[in-house]
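Backbones bend. Our protein:
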Amino acid sequence: MEEIVGVFARGIALGVEAAAILIVAFGSVEAFVRILAIVARGRATHGERKEVWRRFGMWLLLGLEFELAADIIESVVSPTWIDIAQLGAIAVIRTFLNYFLEKDLEESTGGVTPVRGEV
């Protein structure tokens, strides 16, 4: 029974990690295309560049949250304390990245926390 749960959890974690990759990739492509459009026009306002950065940051934030979810799922089936400690360290690092990225996004929007549905 444990093996079945382990295989299932690893499959779910892999799917969540794949979703995170797609989210970050989509955000990267969107930011790249928007920057190209701004450059093609020849003149970019600070607000336009800031908006591209803000949207890209929101995609990264969402991707980090998916990665953290995958780490949590993985920790359920990790067989050794070393694996759990490594996953814990990764989770802490990602949580700090998430916190500071969200703080930067909040500052860039004038103190208003970006709504996650805006992505």
About this structure: The chain has one domain: 2-114. The two ends are 39 Å apart (CA to CA). Residues 2-114 form one domain.
